[in-house]
Amino acid sequence: MNKRFHGMILTLIPVVMILTITLIAPVMGIRPGDASRIGPDLIQFTASVSAGELPRQPGLTIMSAEVDFGHIGPGGTRKGAISFKKTASGGVSWFLITPVGWNATDEKMMMGVLDKDGDLLQIQLKILNDEPDNNGENRKSARPAELMFEAGEQVSAFTRKIEPGHHHVRIRIETDGGPIDFDILFNLLDTVVQPLLGIDPLQIDFGTAMQGEKVNRRVKVTNNGWETLKWRASVARAIGSDTGRALETGKYVSFLNDEITGGGHYKVARHLKERLELPGKWAEDQGYPYAAADGHTLRYHFSGTGIAVYFWRGTATGQLTAFVDDRFIFQQDGLSEQKERFEWQVAEGLSDGSHILTLVSRNGPVAIEGVRIYGGETIRLKSGSVAVSPDNGAVTRQTNYVNITVNTMSLAPGRYCGYVLFDSNGGQKEVELSVDVMADNIPRILDVYRYVRGLDYFLTTNPQAESTTLQTRGYTNQGIAFRLFAPEMPGTTEFFRWFHAQKGDHFYGYELKSVKRSMQGYILEGAIGNIATSRLTHTRELYRWYNTSSKHYFYTVDPKGEGIQKKGYQYDGIAGYVRP
User: What are phi and psi of 14, to 5 degrees?
Assistant: First the structure.
């Protein structure tokens, strides 16, 4: 009995459905096959019992119903396309539906009418490189993603956060004949997938080179991505180069001392010894000066119209307070959500002359890379003077080392700057080069002329170049006082001249640390030559005398001071060793 009853019910269901649709459809205005009003399965069923009317079709077909972007990581971009083909006569209207779980960035809907045989829908998937965590590592949580579609001049974008793993996004396009679907597949990884060029360092200071000398440094080429990085290096031609980029003005000076890397304590590199002062004990970070606590002071003597400072910021970095010529400039915060190299424009528009930059660490540790000095003429390095070896390579997980050599044989004395361009499938980077070239035929011994105005003694090895100062200030020539050595002479170091404008007094020395009294108010004017710090063959002492009343200085090779004692001067020590 139960089986017979169930059989009767199953037999009656189709009949009831047909009668219901037949009666309701005219009332609702629904025609058989109208997919815009009722589901396609129901339409197909009623069509089979109607008077032979066929169901409507979308009028479009997709050549491939799937776009597989494969692996993608933070900062990655993948592009693809879907090809449409028209299967109906006339134009086919369509519009794009917002994918489930995604948010449209614009209220304007992408739509159109396809009136030709076929067309393309361009697709781009981009994973944003989200902020790192406190340890500087990339997060393994959801990342912002952007899905963009382009058809003709129309662009639609959708966003959402995506967890690492495999993803399957269903995309629906509605047409006046019904919907069509296709799928986008991708696997989101925790790490960067595409090759990403890394260069260290990005700036090289070769220091001073004698004419005809070759100087060499090397840089590291690394791949910060997953896929193989292919790179090639070439010498950029500055203005009008392949990058269309002009040379930076000013000279980059690095504080790197690669001879003490990993030693724990920073020591000033030899070519910086007389310009860079670091009172107290400074630690080193990869060869750069590192202030581990508050109150560390750095002083740099420079000549120019402005200066910028390079240092590293991070999650635990303190601040730097800057002074120029004892005048407070600014305090720069070093905090950043990730470790980054930062360029700080400290001062500009200074009088073209000698200045002192003072940096003081505050509220945490800080590592200082170097400075850029503005003012003065910078000459472009000729492409034939720079060699790169090797000039190409491929990197997966290893490191490539590239030697950059500057040959000064054909370069006239002067300050030079240039670039080496690294181009790759993981981006472009430029390495800035700077070098000072000095003539190799300069005399080894330099005459020092002494000029006087009142109690101020002006010493110079080049009175022609300083004739304007000597004449306008009314100095009187007293002839040659002694002789200094040319730069780069073994066993010697730079002999500097300082000037106190208020007192009208010059001070001379190769370092300030040995001075017994305050040097506040003295401004560095530059080196006038080199002096021996210990007795060399054919040298003798250069004596320094000091007037306790007027606070002026006097220098002579005469142990009796040329009778200067009668004017109130007292013996003040040995300034160094010179040629008589």
Answer: -60, -40
Q: Residue 342 forms beta bridges with which residues? A: 311
Question: Which contacts (CB < 8 Å, 24+ apart) does range 44-47 have?
Answer: 45/17, 46/18, 46/21
pTM, rounded to two decimals? 0.51
Q: Which of 471, 496, 426 is nearest to 193 (CA)?
A: 426
Query: What token pair was written down for 201?
Result: 């360092």
Segment 329-346 shows an average pLDDT of 88
Confidence tier at 8 by pLDDT (50, 70, 90): very low
Helix (H, G, I), strand (E, B) or coil at 568: coil
Query: 534-541 — which CB contacts under 8 Å span 24+ positions?
Result: 534/491, 534/577, 535/577, 536/491, 536/492, 536/577, 538/579, 539/577, 539/578, 539/579, 540/577, 540/578, 540/579, 540/580, 541/574, 541/576, 541/577
Phi, psi of 561 (to 5 degrees): 75, 15
In sequence order, what E strands does 97-164 have? 103-104, 111-114, 118-127, 143-151, 154-162
Please give the average per-residue pLDDT across 489-518, as a whole number. 83
Rg (CA), the chain: 39
Structure tokens at 63: 């050549």
β-bridge mates for residue 509, sequence order: 496
Calpha distance 489→210 (Å, rounded): 11
Q: For 392-428, how does the pLDDT look when each residue is reduced to its tens digit (9 = 90+)?
A: 999 998 999 999 999 998 888 888 888 999 999 988 9
Evaluate whether 433 touches 206 at the Cβ level (below 8 Å).
yes
d(CA 260, CA 258): 5
- Determine contact, residues 313/336, Cβ cutoff 8 Å: yes
Q: The sheet that has 297-304: what strands, in order across it?
A: 276-277, 297-304, 353-362, 319-324, 327-333
Distances 208 to 19, 214, 270 between C-alpha atoms, Å: 100, 11, 11
Measured in degrees and rounded to the nearest 5, phi and psi for residue 310 equal: -110, 125
Position with higher pLDDT, 441 vs 313? 313
Q: At what angle do helices 40-49 and 2-28 cross, to 10 degrees?
A: 100
Give the rounded percent of residues in the chain with a pLDDT score beyond 70.
83
Domain architecture of the chain: domains with CATH: 13-56 (no CATH), 60-188 (2.60.40.10), 197-438 (2.60.120.260), 445-578 (no CATH)
Split at pLDDT 50, 70, 90, the class of 9 is very low
User: For 51-125, where are the alpha helices, taking DSSP H only?
Assistant: none
Q: How far is it, in rounded angstroms, from Cα 363 to Cα 421?
A: 38
What is the tens place of the pLDDT at every residue in 48-62? 333 344 455 677 788
551: its two tokens = 């606070």
Statement: residue 520 has pLDDT above 90: no
CB contact set of 13 (below 8 Å; sequence gap of 6+): none
